[in-house]
Amino acid sequence: MGTGRRRVILDTDVGGDIDDAFAIALLALSPEIELVGMTTEHGDTRRRAAIARKLLRLLGRGNVPVVAGRQQPLEPGQPAFWGGSEGEGFVTTADVAAEPVGDAVAFLREALRASPEPLTLITIGPMTNVGALVQQAPDLVTKIKTLVVMGGILDAGAVPVHHEWNLNSDPLAAELALNCGAPLVVGVQDVVKSPTIGPTERQRLLDAGGPAHRGIVAMLDRWLAVVQRAWTSMYDPATAAWTLGWPYLKLEPRRLRTVLGPDPVERRVSFPTWPTLRPPPGGVVRQRLVRTVFEPPDPAGDGVQALVSVAHDDAGFIAAMIDRICSGRRDVRSE
Ligand SMILES: [Ca+2]
Contact, 236 vs 14, CB < 8 A? Predict the structure, then answer.
């Protein structure tokens, strides 16, 4: 039954930053892979699953399973908080109400067990589901062909550690997942932030004319209002596109260490006013921080061997991604 194509599961926090929606659309429309399923995490995971489900349906991929995942971080005492538009203008209250509660970790376990060949997991959000999977079923790590991660920082001076979102939204899960022993491909924040979209790409999506394209633009407009900019970074699809065999992400081997701060520090989180934001109480959370350290490869030494993004061909990627998404179906009804 093998197709010869890489079998992929996407774990996403779609509904916050709009780049997840682009990653979903890109993977859904890519014949290079076999899309086995999607899981959602962090916060209102049913709402997030409803967004992914509707987007897949409008892209003609309603056959792809979507399973809502864990709402709270594994990190003890850490609240889930986020700033996004959470599918406003795209999913309805009824869509969310119809979404099953779901158990993403059970789905991951069963998918890995049942798959005749190892699966590639792509995580483009906090790594809570994968961290829980590693906790619950460490024997299944051998069934992970590659763990593709958007997160971490390559140049420690480039981004303050507390601005790194995915790992620091659940430091314990990040440490579990990144040290699980699966082969790692890491798209670091300071590299994959560089591909951006703006008014030109927005217009191309509108011109494409399908209900999925209009839905993505509706969510994009709300996200741009949240961040108060006319452009936004494509961290997630730039990382996920590695699974398509696309050449735009330049990877080099490194030894990866995760350094988990022992003491909680104050992380101030401020978002512009928006009705559906879920900031932590008072805009401040006290938490441990986790940072990534990438060192020269040393196969005989300690630490995790990873392929890490060191550069990215932004123009080539954005053109290819927008072409691929605009190729999506126009004949699916939005109701
Ligand atoms: Ca994300």
Answer: no
Task: Say how far apart CA 200 and CA 248 lie, in whole Å.
Answer: 20
- 1: in domain: no
Residue 45 Cα to ligand 1 midpoint, Å, equals 13
Q: What is the count of structural domains for the chain?
A: 1
Give 126's DSSP letter.
Answer: -
Mean pLDDT to the nearest integer, 75-101: 87
Residue at 334 is within a domain: no
Q: For residues 131 and 173, what is the distance between their CA atoms, to the nearest angstrom?
A: 4
Report the pLDDT averaged over residues 276-300: 80
Report the candidate in 28, 75, 34 with the shortest Cα–Cα distance to residue 215: 28
Please report the pLDDT score of residue 265 as a whole number: 85
- Ligand 1 centroid to Cα of residue 113, in Å, is 26
298 CA → ligand 1 middle, Å: 30
- pLDDT of 171 higher than 70: yes
Tokens coding 49:
């699953």
Domain for residue 54, yes or no?
Answer: yes
Measured distance CA(47)–CA(14) in Å, rounded: 9
* pLDDT-above-70 percentage for the chain: 94
Mean pLDDT of 254-281: 74
- Domain assignment present for residue 333? The answer is no
Mean pLDDT of the chain: 92
Could you tell me the CATH number of the domain that includes residue 46?
3.90.245.10
